[in-house]
Every structure is written in structure tokens, then in C-alpha cells.
Amino acid sequence: MSLRTRIEGDLLKVYDRLRGKYVALTPEEFVRQHFVEYMVEHLHYPASVMANEIGIELNGRKKRCDTVVFGSDMHPLMIVEYKAPGVNVTQDVFDQIVRYNMSLRARYLVVSNGLRHFCCVIDYATSAYQFIPRIPDYRDLRGVASDN
Which residues, at least 6 apart from 45, have a Cβ–Cβ distance to it below 8 Å? Predict the structure, then answer.
């Protein structure tokens, strides 16, 4: 997969298909763009149900979720958090996405640094979560209710 890039001044930018604009190509953005393409092209997620840099308010502070996938009811179904390839996926990273999910209540949480990917599914009825071996294909999620 190749990314659409261009140079603006001294800055290398990449085209973000979900935001419909060019953004600075940082290491984290590199991971985001490749991951979104993977989800669209290989896991069959329609770009129309995905959004990058979704603003939320958490404890009175504005935060941004890296990518949110919405269910058919337009409730968040999945949150994806990206880190640069050199950043280890630690408990702190999971704590961050869990905090974001306190307001969104998505069913799936995904963390990726481009080299390692982790996905868990949350059961709100039992207040439990379980790591699953792979990110679900969108075709397997159709009809899955999001939990709000």
C-alpha cells in the first residue's frame, strides 16, 4: 500500500482519507494511515463508518480519540489508539483508551504501534473484557449491537 504524500514548505504531509485532507506525516500518523487502509481494504470496514481525531470531553478536558468506528446505530462500536512504532504498548496506553471509552462506551478497543496490535471486547452486562486474537472483520460485526 502506498500513501499519498506531498511536501508543503518543509513539512511532509499525508492524505487522510477519513478527514479528507493532508496532515503532517508523523510516526504515529504513519501507523494511523496504514492501519485505516488495512481496516478498509482487508477487514472490509467502510470508510463511511470511520472517523479520525474525534473530540471528546473527559473530566472537563478536551481529548481526541485517534479513530472511532461507528455501528449502524451511529454509536461508537470501536476505538483505535495509535502509537509510533518505537513506542511500546504498555498498561498506560490501555489506561488511556479505557479513559476515552468511559464517555464513548464502545464494544471494542484496539491499540496498535504498527508492529503489534491488541484488541479487546467489552461485555458491559458483566463488566468484563476479553482480549481476542485478532481485530474482527467488519462483515462479522454487522448486526452486532453497540452497547450504550
Answer: 39, 69, 138
Buried b (16+ CB within 10 A) or exposed e, 43-64: eebeeebbebebebeeeeeeee
Domain boundaries along the sequence of the chain? 27-141
Distances 16 to 35, 47, 53 between C-alpha atoms, Å: 12, 11, 11
pTM value?
Answer: 0.89
Distance CA 148, CA 134 (A): 23
CATH 3.40.50.1820 correct for 27-141: no
**Residue 109: partners with Cβ closer than 8 Å, 6 or more residues away:** 78, 79, 81, 94, 97, 98, 101, 119, 120, 122, 129
Angle at 2 between CA 132 and CA 51, to 5 degrees: 55
DSSP 103-127: HH--SEEEEE-SS-EEEEEEETTTT
What's the pLDDT at 62? Answer: 86
Task: Among 66-70, 115-119, 141-145, name the one with the lowest average pLDDT.
Answer: 141-145
Closest CA to 32 of 104, 76, 40, 141: 40
